[in-house]
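Class, look over these structure tokens:
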Amino acid sequence: MQQTKVTAYDSTLRDGAQAQGVSFTVEDKLKIVKELDALGIGYIEAGNPGSNPKDLEFFKRVSELQLQNAKIIAFGSTRRIGIKAADDKNLRSLLSANTQAVAIFGKSWDYQVTDILRTTLEENLAMIADTIAYLKQQGKEVVFDAEHFYDGYKANAQYALATLQAAADAGADVLALCDTNGGTFPNEIFEITQKVVAQFGSVQSSGVQIGIHCHNDCDMAVANSVAAVQAGATQVQGTMNGIGERCGNANLVSIIPNLQLKLGLNCIPSENITSLTHVARFVSEVANMPFNDKAPYVGDDAFSHKGGMHIDAVNKNPISYEHINPEQVGNIRHILVSEVAGRGALLNKLQQIEPSLTKDSPDTIRVLEQLKALEHEGYQFEGAESSFDLLVHKLLGKFVPFFSLKQYNVSIFEPSADGLNSSATIHVNVNGRDANATAQGDGPVNALDKAMRKALEQFYPAINEIKLVDYKVRVLDSSQATAAKVRVIIESTDQQQSWTTIGVSTDIIEASWLALKDAVEYKLMYIQSLQKT
């Protein structure tokens, strides 16, 4: 019988939480569990109840959730050296989580047993067998993580396999082979996994399942995971976005579509894979980590096209430069606006604003020339398409200013008072009416943003919906030192949509003002377009 299903096993809340800079609250973990369950993940390894009170609270609260797809897994280690499993306090904590399934890690590399655990090879086998047998007696489904299995196999294959045998004989449901140091190559993973599958379990028999757990220290965790599945593994472990200790874990966000869309294996319900991009970005946001725009399948750049020849080909048929339809994983195609995109690529954008334009229209040529001039000054509209939309509306005479700036003044004072070290005063004109406002802020940009909102909110209450999501500053020519031009990019949201704007100047305050002004104008222009329709 040909293999058709692979179980997706997520360890974001345990292995992922070991990444530098990541610390999930209980609420964070519950939110992520709901998203992973809705995606269709089979197992969610959520932490070690014996390690901290926070995980104990989490396991209590997660049991109250009505999950549709996932089983929650509590994680722990084999019993301590020289005691009975029933007397091990960490195993008792593991059972207190009241999960249907548990994961236990044990040593499969003889060096780790003798030099790190500092016990005998025989005692390590007994620790594995006793622990799993005890947990099975408690009615648990048990996943055995064979730590350092591939390094152990290469050093002493007989002993590495003996650890698996001890786990299987004790009743383990899954033997997860771990490339813990992340240094094994795909061909080795395939060959060794194939031998394990032949000995312990396969889709043709009722034997124990074989899983794969890879780390990314050689940047091959995804490839290694796929190789293991091709060798017969039926469970694949990883984390969302590949977060984890050192270089991270195998990235389930890439593994799932690779297996499902490329190899035709069922990892999650087929209708759910369109949620993959959303879940990847959600986890990144909750983990407070920058999202990788270059991420395969789900990144903003994954289906972005900038070169003129590429764009022309994609407009004719996307398969010319795209390996899948981005909508299959919930992503979208981006045709980037830049000086190298060419007139044909630019036309695609312009026709969304003015359908009557052609490739040779004077307005098309004028916009292209202006785009090239601004990019020469340091603008980069491929990362700030909302500012480009505003620019085009202005150049085509389709933009009516919502306000004009008369003057702003920013002051910085130290030491700060209650964390506020800046003050901004702004004078604007709205349809012939002057408006002035002053505000204090945590830094000059924050003060200027507050003052602008304060001056405009009486005319445009909707600007209070705008929240700043991200603020980036890039020095364009470091040789100019403090006189260098800077590029400021601001990402804003109103909870319904997000948009990005840009400003460039030798003055960081002015560059910030230009980006802030565009952010407000884009929001107001969007509202105006909805009212017209």
Residues 351 and 379 are 22 Å apart (CA to CA). The two ends are 57 Å apart (CA to CA). The first helix runs from residue 26 to 39.
